Amino acid sequence: MRNGQVYSLGDDLPKENPWQHDLLGYAPFAKMLFKAVSELDAPNGYVIGLQGRWGLGKSTTINFVKAYINKYNEELDDQSDRIGFIDFRPWIIAGHQDLTGSFFKVLTENLGSKDNWWMRKWKGALRATRGPTDTLIDALATLGMAVDPTRVGAGFAAAMAKKSINGMIGRFLDEPSVQLAYQTLKQQLGKSKKRIIVAIDDLDRLEDQEIRSIMQMVKTVGQLPYVVYILSYDRQIVWRALDGGEPRNGPKYAEKIVQQEIELPQPQRRALLAILDREIAFLLSAYDRTSRWDYIVRDGIHRWITSPRDVLRLANAIKMAWPTFKNEIDGQDLLAIEGLKLFDQGAFNWIRDSRDFLFSEGRFMMAGDEVKVAEVEKLKRRFSDSDRLPQILGVLSILFPGSAKWLDQKSIGGEPYEETVKRRGIGSKDGYDTYFGWGLPKDSISKSVVDSLLSNLDDVETITATLKHYLSRFNSKGEPMIALLLDELRIRYRGRDPAKPSQALLDALFSVGEKILSIDWEPPFLSLGPRAQIRFLIRNMLETWQKGEAGTRLVEAFEKAGSAAFCATVFVDMGRSIGIFRSESGDSPLIDKDAFEKLGLVLLPKILAAASDGNLLAAPYYFDITRAWAYLATPADAKGWLAAGMQDSADFMVKVGQGLTAHSVGTPSRTYSMRNRPEAELFDLDALVEAGKKHLNNGRLDGDQRRMLEAIVNGSQRILAGQAPDADWPPDDDR
Length: 735
What we know:
Elements: H1 27-38, E1 46-51, H2 58-74, E2 84-88, H3 90-93, H4 99-111, H5 116-128, H6 133-147, H7 154-160, H8 162-165, H9 169-173, H10 176-192, E3 196-200, H11 208-219, E4 227-233, H12 235-243, H13 249-257, E5 260-263, H14 269-279, H15 281-284, H16 291-304, H17 308-325, H18 331-343, H19 345-353, H20 355-358, H21 369-382, H22 389-399, H23 417-422, H24 429-436, H25 447-454, H26 460-471, H27 481-492, H28 503-517, H29 530-544, H30 547-560, H31 564-577, H32 593-613, H33 623-632, H34 635-648, H35 650-657, E6 662-663, E7 672-673, H36 685-696, H37 703-720
Helix pairs in contact: 1-2, 5-10, 11-12, 12-13, 14-17, 16-18, 16-22, 17-18, 18-19, 26-28, 27-29, 28-29, 28-30, 29-30, 30-32, 31-32, 31-33, 32-33, 33-34, 34-35, 34-36, 36-37
């Protein structure tokens, strides 16, 4: 059973009913062509060329002409004045049998019972022929060239039907019944003045030799009284086939065969776009019209869509891609990138091969202007002789606004990167990787997950379950998935039109906050770890509320929270912004002093209870806990708790050390140093040295823990000696 929407792929079949299916305005042109051929007096036959490039609607036009002829015949009082219509499709049988023979077979079958005189003559000729059918038709072709009144040129005719001529003239001269049948056909057609329209469609689909064969046939044995041919083709293809190795001969020969060439009208862009709009309405209706979209339409869609076939190709590409990328990639960006793939393939390939450039990674992370300019030049060289280049660069600048500077374009609307991420555009890393990975990479958070979470902002259970789902998951790069989810949420609360914050989301973050703080993962140098992500997400949410409401919301979250450690982290973060605790960030206040004091009234009992029952020991680190404790109560209590814990447990001292040391980033193993003097109200330097040496001597530390405690001991000794904590210090021989 199918679930959800079904997308019907369009077909490339020509339309047949000019009264119901004329979406592009071809019916008036087809009716004009019908009137022209129906009123044409052509005792020696006539050849009309219908010229137009592939996919423009030539077959539809011929079908409409046929429909008008049928209607004309149905309304006749005198059926002897009917117009015959023969639809010959040479490409169906090309390569399998002789085209001229096939044409006369179709002609014979379509003359019908009213022309049984020809059927009898033709069948008699076949019975009289000793050789196979293709031999007979080769002979007919030879006759046609011999009696051709227009004398196109024996040399040219021979080149066009070389296969038919070689060795066949003598045989043909031995078949008088065939000559008689052909002459009888011409005489009877001339006498009856029966009008016959022969449409030979898609001439340009044939091989060059086959094109030459059809053109020769039309002007020789096919030149019959009152028979009007409508040949449909792309002029450039047919001329090239008729050149026969002699450049510029094609047009000259074509003019001798085609007596009147008519240009198929270019369909109106408005009509083509209306069809595209109807075909992909499921995508377009889900998005607002923005300046970005206007530029995609101007520089991309208007240039790409010039024929019905262009509409079909783009619409089908979207219908194939949308079930995979729906809710994971911005739909307007998907339309643009699919358009590039179909119509500007060089640009599409450059995008596919230039991920590092587009996101300033790899060799482009620290690259100068000259390197990035050189990379864009590679793209420009692909279109050096094309006037499409400015428009291609315009589309790329829309998709990748962060690279617009290098693409010699201005970033339309100046879209910040977080806005691109919000809508999961191709210009975001996850959007790019999802598209070129043909589905969501396992290293990313699904956009639908984020959208679902934000659509349930009042459901604390759903939000908490989603957060917990990613808590213990890591992707193939070793990144904690919860950090990626928090980053996605954080971006939704930044920039233009931020998401609406909710108490339920805030409460859910507090419920998992301590577990997130416990993830000791070192992010890449230019990335944020989960500890920073959750702090910044809460700040972004509070910024969205007004200051008074932010304080009220935060107090409510504190009251519901079970983790004293996480509440202490948020408390100290808020205290830094209003100048209570030392800060180097300069963050603006998010709550007022009164709200901050209310937070403290809620937090202190939680800290004291956790210290009393031992749960405080399980906190991931103690830096914020002890600062909050010292501020809210007497520093001596917090200081005593720290001193006792450091003496008793190496693990405890390592957690303390996270707030006393800094470590290297991007090295195979961390190196530690004590950057600042520990706060005197919380730490006794001699106690730090004593506890550190004790644990360094017990031999149960891993390498990372040992380096941290060495930094604490050495730094404390330097301070006691009147030096900076990270100054050079000789090794301690007594250790």
